[in-house]
Design brief:
- Helices cover about 35% and strands about 20% of the residues.
- The chain has about 375 residues and is of the alpha/beta class.
- It has one domain: 3-Layer(aba) Sandwich (Rossmann fold).
- It has an eleven-stranded mixed sheet, with helices on both faces.
- α2 packs across α3, α6 crosses α7 and α11 runs antiparallel to α12.
- The longest helix has 18 residues.
- The chain is globular, with a radius of gyration of 19 Å.
């Protein structure tokens, strides 16, 4: 996958954040990844069916409730980045990923001027690798990763959600061979079908309740999440972390044309989302000058929607990366990611678990850290 796309996220991640969970922990957090082949789609051109990349490979990342034992090992942030490195090699059928984990960690550390790559790679998470499942039924959140991103980009949010009794299924942003995501309709479709293939496969798991599902996405993943939500019946709610479904025209002519290709597709034109919809938006201190126009995505959404602007937030603040880097270096953090986590958690708890806490949490944060749009 292209280095510039994979590492380009650094540019929008220069913010200050903090993260903390004070609530009593109900579950420990487990993580596993499953690789499947979607035999309805071809992936690598000019190879025969004996090749491991002939059919579309799909890596399913799953965060789930567990009862971890002392023998289970905690994942480090470096383990997540190593996973990314391994996937680059696999999807490109090359060794292009070698060394990317340490390079990406170095770029993050230097970008935030905090910590160093060694401490960042060794930072422990609160997640146990391949810990046993709890044999109960849990509601599920399908998460769509950002542009050329891996789903662990928001693992801190997932840890909070899992502790409250959710399963999170992460769908990575991987386009056509050799895996580069672009804004072309054809690549967007691949991520949509990766999500649908993941859900189809996981329906055999007894502890996942696919009658109780939310869809969530960050940035590009917000747009893809909307397309996915339109194809899954009875979605309980949708959460967009400054998703690209609200496209801002005028910054890049090629991107505008690509978005028009997606917007004019039959899937987008037929979209009519009836599920409750929560959207977060940034409100940078140095706001860019508004361009031509913004796609009015609310035309595709029911009246049950809430749009919140997070004061002083940059686009990258809706990812866990700023918090992770600053935590590894004991650097000063703001409260942005914690606010996003509290509101997101309360919203999905209300719609998937029947708890009525969102309005209370929103009232506490309203006009203090967030504003209704």
């Amino acid at each position: 996958m292209k280095h510039c796309l994979l590492f380009g996220l650094i540019v929008c991640l220069l913010g200050c954040n903090s993260f903390g969970t004070k609530e009593k922990k109900e579950y420990e957090v487990g993580f596993k990844t499953i690789r499947i082949s979607d035999k309805t789609r071809k992936y690598k051109p000019d190879v025969d069916s004996t090749n491991s990349l002939y059919y579309r490979p799909v890596d399913i990342d799953i965060w789930y409730p567990t009862e971890a034992s002392l023998g289970d090992s905690l994942i480090t942030f470096g383990d997540y980045l190593k996973l990314f490195e391994e996937r680059v090699n696999f999807y490109t059928a090359s060794y292009a990923g070698n060394g990317m984990a340490s390079k990406f960690a170095q770029m993050l550390a230097e970008g935030f001027e905090c910590a160093d790559s060694t401490r960042l790679l060794k930072l422990a998470t609160q997640t146990y690798k391949n810990a046993p499942n709890i044999e109960e039924n849990f509601p599920v959140i399908v998460y769509m990763a950002s542009y050329n991103g891996m789903s662990y980009e928001n693992y801190l949010l997932f840890e909070t959600l899992v502790k409250k009794g959710f399963i999170v299924i992460g769908v990575n942003s991987i386009g056509r061979f050799p895996g580069d995501m672009t804004m072309k309709k054809e690549d967007a479709v691949e991520q949509v079908h990766d999500a649908l293939a993941s859900i189809k496969y996981l329906k055999t798991y007894k502890n996942i309740k696919f009658d109780n599902v939310a869809v969530m996405g960050y940035s590009w993943g917000g747009l893809i999440g909307a397309l996915v939500a339109a194809k899954i019946p009875n979605i309980k709610c949708i959460v967009s972390l400054e998703g690209s479904e609200f496209h801002h025209y005028g910054y890049n002519k090629e991107e505008d044309a690509d978005f028009e290709g997606i917007r004019n597709s039959s899937d987008f034109q037929q979209m009519a989302l009836k599920s409750p919809y929560l959207r977060f938006e940034s409100a940078p201190i140095n706001q860019k000058t508004a361009k031509d126009s913004v796609n009015n995505f609310l035309e595709r959404v029911s009246r049950n929607y809430t749009i919140l602007k997070l004061d002083s937030a940059e686009h990258g603040d809706f990812s866990a990366y700023p918090v992770v880097v600053k935590s590894s270096g004991n650097c000063k953090n703001a409260q942005l990611y914690e606010t996003i986590t509290k509101l997101t958690s309360a919203y999905v708890e209300e719609h998937l678990l029947g708890k009525s806490s969102f309005n209370k949490v929103l009232e506490e944060e309203l006009n203090r850290t967030v504003r209704k749009k």
